[in-house]
Amino acid sequence: MKQSNIKLTGTLLIVALLSFTSCKKWIEYDPQDDFKITEQDYLKSEADYRAMAVGVYSPIQWLNQIVPIGDIASDNAVSGGESATDILSLQQIDEFTYYPINSTLADLWQVAYEGINRANYMHQYKSKNIAGETVDFAGKEAMYGEIYFLRAYYYFSLVKLFGDVPLFIDRRLTINDSKTLQRSPKATVYAQIENDLTTAISVLPTTQVDKGRITKYAAQALLGKVYLYQAGTNTAKYAQAAAMLENVITANKFSLVSDFGSIFLPSGENGTESVFEIQYSNGQGTYDWAHTTRGQGNMLVQMCGVRGLTGTNGMPYNPGWSFDMPTVNLANAYAAGDKRKDETVFNVEAYKLANPSFGISYLVAPYKNTGFYNKKYLPRVGETSGQVELNYSNNYRTIRYADVLLMAAEANNKAGNDTKAQGYLNQVRRRAFGNTLNDITSTGSTLYDAILNERRLEFAMEGERFFDLVRTGKAASTLTSFGFVAGKHEVFPIPQGEVDFSGLTQNPNY
User: Fold this and answer.
1) Domain count of the chain?
2) How do residues 90-139 score in pLDDT, each as one tens digit?
3) Which residues partner with 361 through β-bridges?
4) For residue 311, is it within any domain?
5) What phi, psi does 120 have (nearest 5°)?
6) 80-89, 141-150, 294-303, 415-424: which range is least confident on average?
7) pTM for this one?
8) Domain annotation covers residue 318
């Protein structure tokens, strides 16, 4: 979905004092007399509402840095880059040396709340517009289902990153409101997320004409994930997750594609495995380097590319910045015969030796080099335009059907149905190995660990790993040698600017 530049301005009221020969009087100035657009001009028609709904989608594109964080903060990837100060904010996240002043974290906070503010504005004027007029049209409730899903997604992103966060839903936040903000317990935020998704599910259609628009199944899948994130030792939440995810599975609308690697090609976008996919395009010919996550394209793709890569005779890859590099630990985690390894972990030297006709040359990544690159989002020829580095059209596969299956496997295992859990897990493994010889038959906690390991292998370099480790209580045992401190690094620090401006409390030990 193309980025919408929607600016919401306040009503301008100017009281002018005019002097006349023998008297003075007050009049109210109407900015429309000077052909100025004000808030009163918004939401006058169905077209206005639908245009603003597109604007609520836009910030979801700008959250793409959650993806590298989810792997760099784990055992899956290192920051990479040119030096120890190249995108310093990511280097600090990699090493667990970050502080409340971190530009990437501050940007994600601002982006998520920008999305929430846009959704709240639409919610505020759902029944009547700014002028007090009712604008009804066919499909309005379904459209608002999209808005409530998006608000839930923005809050879910925030609570995953920061834990307790300010919660406001009734209207657009003003500067004065910001100064009185307080953090709400994450349980309260999750309750609102659940409420928004439940509302969305009740009105959303099962299919959409426009690719990337949210469906009922996307909302059900996200709600299932939200239940899992809260579950911990709560069997009831696992049962809720299992029941919700079952709706997506039994709908028979989705399936695992046979060729795992094809998912991440342009031809694989919005395919049969896509439950929810964030859309990018590269129609714009220019880009503002001062706002690197706000463009039309997906910057994550350029970050993952091989530094200084060149080649001839149809070599399919473009160069990049050598960030978000898979670790040797991840590469070694794949069993022999697992087809996902070569579609996840790109060994540039092996590729060069296997393809001598391309005449490949490249620069060894100068910082934290592992020799491996993120194959899923490797920049490819023909996927960008204009400002080449920052205008890639690759969609982000936010919720794949494999995710639904593995979440359902986890939820059913914890809810006591190992037979169903094994079935969902083995669907994913059979695609990975191309046979049934690697099916899992274990039960109980052993099956649970196998499911979590499968999530690592299936979604490596897609931004899930760190958050999975935290929500399952396995972060400390897995990441302590990387610098993770229990009781601190389960959440990231509240950006210092928000603490200073709004007086928000900081997360412990920051």
Assistant:
1) 1
2) 999 999 999 999 999 999 999 999 999 999 999 999 999 888 899 999 99
3) 310
4) yes
5) -65, -35
6) 294-303
7) 0.91
8) yes
